[in-house]
Each structure stands twice: as C-alpha cells, then as structure tokens.
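Regression test case RT-17, inverse folding.

Input:
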C-alpha cells in the first residue's frame, strides 16, 4: 500500500431520545487550536514523503484541503490558501473523471465512493467560502454524480464503476450516504441544489429513526454531520444515539474508542481521530479528545497505517478542527502578517 493511499476498503461507517444539541459559533465551542502540532506533523509528513506527496487518495485529500484552510485561518498566511488550491488542482488532475472523481491513484483504488465524493464537495464548499469559483465547481460535481448514485425513495449506492455506468459489483446501498450528501449539498448552495437536497432529505426521513451505528468512525462522522443542522429531528436523534454508542466503546485506561461493540480490543488511529473531530463538533467530552490524541501519538499498530497519510492528516484535523466545524462562517478574518 502506498504512503499516499488509504485503507483497502473505505472508512466504513455503517450503523430515541432527544438531545440538547444546539448550534454554536466556534468561539463558544470547546475545540483545539494546536497549530504547532499540525505544523510539526506537516513538516514530518513532507520529509517522509507521506503527504501531500505520494499517491492521491480522495478521502485524505479532502481532509487535507480543509486542514490547509484551517491553517490559513489560524495564521493569516496566504501560502496555506495557495497550497489548498494547488492540492485541489492536483487531485482533479489525477483523480478527476468526466463525472466525479476516482477513489484513489493506486491501481486497487478504482471506482467511486459516494461518501468520498461528498467529503470532497464539503472541501470545495469550504474553499468556496474564500474563492467562490470552487463552490461552482462543487455544484457541477454534485449535479453530475447525484443521479447515478441516488435511487429516489430507496437509497444511495455506496460504490459505482469509475464511469458511473453501473454499481460496482458486490456493493449495495450506503448506510450514511444520504446524510453525507444532504450536508454537503446544503453547504454548497441550497437554491442551486434544491431538488437534490429534497431527495436526500426524503431518504434521511425514511432512515434516521432505524439507523443504529456500531462503529467508531461512523459514530464520529455522524456527530460531525449532525452538528451542522442540530435543530432537525434526525440530527437530534442521531446525536443522542451516537453519544450513547460511543460511551459503550470508550476504553480508559488507556484512552481510545474500540472499533465496534463486537471488536472491543481493536483500535484504529484514523477512526479515533474521526471520533475526536465529531466530539468537538458536538462540543462533548473534551477530556476524551485529549486522552485519545495522547494515546495515539505513541500507539503503533504494526501495519501500514503507521505511515499512511490518512492516519496523520486526520490526526491534524483532530488537533485543529477549524473549518471542519459548523461555526466556520462566523470566524473572524484571518490575522494579517
């Protein structure tokens, strides 16, 4: 597996009560601003040719674009914005297809995953906050991929052939993909994508009450998704349910979230960093975020993920969530200097 790649399968995220979640600005939310950690990690990844060098991988690179924008916010240095734009150009050069983007550059990263595409759309929406032409690019991609992936009234196909001509053999509907698309579409342009948003909302309304996620990354990503529209019933139910499920997966000592209830001793660094992002989005358990960040700083799995870009880019996002969070629109202008 290449340093620039990611998992041989995607970050899989399959899975009543109300919750007191409410939308907070970034200044009101407990969140990390560990810029120095991120700068050191980026220097190390470059020296080791892990990222942004190496083979392209859409999930990791989407996280990377948002991370670079967060650094732009924190430092006010234009070079981080320039790096974000350069990364987008390189990803589209390597992975871009007439409709959508390929999963990754490595030979076994063929096809297209909808939730990877939705994360890329989120990255373009965030970059579009600064440079509006990227928002237009995101809208165009959303329109191109929506109909091949989305079956109205049924669900979202998890993986498609690379040309989007048919579902990828052996893959069905995604458990969380409608939620992914709904959030990214709304952040891109609620008016331009009104029809697509309505289809996703219908799918969410049919799915959310019965959706029970039992996997670390899926739970973290659901907390993150729900934080954008916490007043909506699906977000309240899934936030409450996700927090309860995460309580059952927490292992302290030593301080990590287990992979799933059926795998209590399995721990995956990048998945835990996704949970850390979700907890900061929900403004819950900052002590657990601190504990797991410290634990995985020295933990070694002994496999390829010790050097995979996905592990270290998501570690940076956990330490500097910045533009990943729902209050990004009310941030102050970047400092000058």
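Golden output:
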């Amino acid at each position: 597996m290449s340093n620039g790649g990611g998992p041989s399968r995607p970050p899989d995220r399959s899975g009543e009560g109300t919750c007191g979640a409410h939308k907070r600005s970034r200044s009101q939310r407990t969140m990390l601003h560990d810029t120095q950690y991120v700068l050191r990690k980026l220097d190390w990844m470059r020296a080791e040719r892990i990222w942004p060098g190496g083979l392209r991988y859409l999930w990791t690179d989407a996280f990377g674009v948002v991370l670079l924008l967060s650094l732009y916010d924190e430092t006010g240095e234009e070079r981080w914005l320039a790096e974000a734009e350069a990364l987008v150009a390189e990803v589209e050069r390597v992975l871009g297809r007439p409709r959508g983007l390929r999963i990754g550059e490595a030979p076994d990263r063929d096809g297209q995953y909808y939730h990877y595409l939705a994360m890329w759309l989120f990255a373009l929406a965030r970059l579009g906050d600064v440079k509006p032409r990227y928002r237009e690019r995101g809208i165009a991609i959303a329109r191109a991929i929506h109909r091949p992936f989305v079956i109205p009234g049924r669900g979202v196909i998890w993986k498609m052939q690379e040309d989007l001509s048919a579902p990828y053999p052996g893959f069905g509907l995604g458990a969380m993909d409608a939620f992914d698309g709904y959030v990214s579409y709304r952040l891109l342009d609620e008016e331009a994508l009104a029809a697509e948003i309505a289809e996703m909302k219908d799918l969410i309304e049919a799915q959310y009450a019965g959706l029970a996620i039992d996997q670390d990354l899926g739970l973290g990503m659901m907390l993150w998704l729900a934080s954008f529209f916490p007043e909506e019933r699906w977000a309240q139910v899934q936030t409450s349910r996700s927090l309860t499920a995460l309580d059952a997966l927490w292992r302290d000592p030593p301080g990590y979230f287990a992979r799933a209830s059926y795998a209590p001793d399995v721990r995956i660094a990048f998945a835990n960093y996704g949970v850390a992002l979700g907890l900061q989005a929900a403004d819950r358990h900052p002590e657990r975020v601190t504990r797991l960040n410290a634990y995985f700083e020295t933990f070694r799995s002994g496999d390829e993920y010790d050097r995979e870009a996905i592990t270290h880019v998501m570690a940076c996002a956990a330490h500097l969530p910045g533009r990943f969070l729902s209050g990004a629109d009310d941030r102050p202008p970047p400092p000058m200097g």
